[in-house]
Amino acid sequence: MTLSCMCFGLFIWMAAASLATIQATPYVLYTKINGSETITCECPDHSCLEVFWYRYLERTKTLQFLLYCNSAGREQQGENLSATRFKGSVSSGQRMVYTLRITGLQENEIGFYSCMFKTKNIMPVGYYIMPGVNPPTVQPPTVKTKTPKKTCNCKPPMSPKGCEQSVLWPGIGALLLLAITLAGTLYYFSRLPKKCRHRFTKTNQLR
C-alpha cells in the first residue's frame, strides 16, 4: 500500500471523527481566478509531528485529501494533484506552524480548506476560499440625527419659576414707571408758590 493510500485512509477516518466538532467560523478569502493563497495551521506545542491538509468542495460536495506533511518537511500530495500547485512547508519556533500554498485557483475549487494533526485531537478553524467571487460591499453606518429638544430660553439655570418671569418683569417695570411718574407729579405741585396753590384751591371751590 502506497503512502498516499495510507494517508488518505487515515485522513478519511480522522475527518469523519472530527468534522462534527467544528464550531468556530472559518476565515473567508476572496481570491481572483488563477490567483494563489497561503493558509496556515498552528500547533499549540511541538508535539504535532504530522499534518493532513484537506478541502471540502462546495459544488461537488466532496471531501478531498490534499497533502501530507511532517515536521521534517517531507510531503506527499493527494491523488491526481500537482506538487507545483499544492506545496507544503513547516516552521518551528515557539509553536509549530504548517503552511500550505495553493496556486492557480479556479472557480470550481470554492470550498472549505483546513488541516488536521495526527497526534492532536484538535481541528483548526480553517479557511473558506472563494475564487472568482467578489467580496461583499460594506454599507456605511447609518448616522441617527438627534432631534433637538425644545427648551425655554427665558428660564434662568437655577430659577424654579421659568418662563413666568417673562411676564412678571414687564409688569413690575410698568408699575415702577407709573410710580415714578406719580412721584414726579406730586413733587412738581409741591414746588409751586403758595399763591398759585391758593388760587388753584379757590378756583376749585367756586366750581
Report on the architecture of this protein.
There is one protein chain. With about 210 residues, this protein is α+β, with helices and mostly antiparallel strands. The chain folds into 2 domains: about 5-130, Sandwich (Immunoglobulin-like); about 165-205. The chain is about 25% helix and about 30% strand. It contains 3 helices and 9 strands, in the order αβββββββββαα. It has helices at about 5-20, 165-190, 195-205, and strands at about 25-30, 35-45, 50-55, 60-70, 75, 85-90, 95-100, 110-115, 125-130. Strands 1-9-8-3-4-5 form a 6-stranded mixed β-sheet, with helices on one face. The chain has a 3-stranded antiparallel β-sheet with strand order 2-7-6, with no helix packed on it. β3 (about 50-55) and β4 form a beta hairpin. The N and C termini lie far apart (about 150 Å). Mean pLDDT is about 75; it is low at about 15-25.
What labels describe this entry?
207 residues, alpha+beta, Immunoglobulin-like, 2 domains, six-stranded mixed β-sheet, three-stranded antiparallel β-sheet, Ig-like_fold
